[in-house]
Amino acid sequence: MFDWIQMLADGLVYGLLGLEQHSRWGEALSFFIYDSIKILFLLMLITSLMGIVNSYFPIDRIRNFLSRNKLYGAEYLLASTFGAVTPFCSCSSVPLFIGFVKGGIPLGVTFAFLITSPLVNEVAVAMFIGIFGWKTTLIYVSSGILLGTVGGYILGRLRLEHLLSDWVKGVLHNAQQEDAWEEERLNFRQRLPVIGREAIGIVKSVFWYVIVGIGIGALMHGFIPTGFFEAWITRDNPLAVPLAVLMGVPMYSNAAGVLPVVQVLVQKGVPLGTALAFMMAVVGLSLPEATLLKKVMSLKLIAIFFGVVTLCIIISGYVFNLIF
C-alpha cells in the first residue's frame, strides 16, 4: 500500500541527495521521509473518515452502548481484534486513537486497539509463519490480542479520562456543542468543507509532534546496533525479559521490520519468550509514540499507559519462555 512512499523516499535520499545505500544517515533519512509522509497521510485520511462517520452516524449511541458495561469485556476484545487486522505501527495507530477519542469511544476500549494494532498484522503473521511455524504464530497472535484486551480493560477500569490533554477535552467539548438539528439539514457536499477544515486543523495541531517523534525514531532506526542487545538478553540472565523490554522501548520499527532481528536473537540462543518481549516493546511502545501521544495525553497518562503495557509484555515474555 505504501510502496510508492518508500520508492519516493529512497529516490530522494539515494538518488537526489546521493547518500550511500545502507549507510546510517541514509537509512535514518529514508526512514524519516517515509514515515513522515505515511503518518501525515494516514492522519489526514483517518481524521476525514472519522469526520464523515461523526457527521452521519449516531456515534453517541455507540458511546452509550459501550459505556453500559453489559458486554462483560467483549468490547475490549472486539477493539483488540480490530487492532490486529489493521496494518499500523505504533505511531501510525495514533491517528486512529485520536479519531476514536474524538468520536467518544471509551478510553479503555481505545487503548485496547492502540496496544494490539502495532503488535499483530497480516505481514507480521505471514513472516512469523515462515520463520517460526504455525504453532508459535497462533500463540503469538492470540497473546497479542489478549494483551490488548487485558491492557485495555485495566486502563479502562482506572478511569483515566481526566488525564487526557486539554486539546482533546476542547475537541470533545466543541463536538458536544454542535447543533445536531442544523447538521441534519446539510447534505454530504455541504458537509465536506467543514469536515475538511476540521481534518486540516487537527493535522496542523499535531504536525510538529509527528515530525519530532518520527525524527527520534529515525535516528534510533539508523544508529542503534542490534548486536548491543544480544549481549544482555541471554538465556542465563533471570532478568533478561524486563531488560529486553527496556531495551526495546527506545527503538522504533514495525513488526515486519523487527522480526528478522528476533530471528537472529533466537538463533543466537536468546529464549523465544525474551525475544518476543523485545519485539513487542519495539513495536508496541516507543519514544516516538510517546512524543505523538503527548498531544492527546498528559505525561501522567502516558506513563500509566506505558507502565501497564510494559508489565503485560514482561509477564507474557516469561509465560512464552515457560511454554517453549
List keywords for this structure.
about 325 residues; mainly alpha; 17 helices; about 75% helix; about 0% strand
Structure, described:
The chain has 324 residues and is mainly α. It has one domain (3-323). 77% of the residues lie in helices and 0% in strands. It has helices at residues 3-16, 24-56, 59-67, 74-84, 90-102, 107-119, 122-132, 134-157, 166-176, 180-184, 188-223, 227-230, 240-248, 255-267, 272-284, 287-293, 299-323. Helix 4 packs across helix 8, helix 5 runs antiparallel to helix 6 and helix 7 (122-132) packs across helix 8. The longest helix is centred in the middle third of the chain and has 36 residues, at 188-223. Mean pLDDT is 75; it is low at 179-183.
- The shape is globular
**Count of runs of 4 or more consecutive helical residues:** 17
How is the biggest beta sheet arranged? Answer: none
Mean pLDDT: 75
Low-pLDDT runs of 5+ residues are: 179-183
Judged by helices, strands and strand pairing, the structural class is mainly alpha
H/E topology pattern: HHHHHHHHHHHHHHHHH
Number of β-strand runs = 0
Helix amount: over 70%
CA radius of gyration: 20 Å
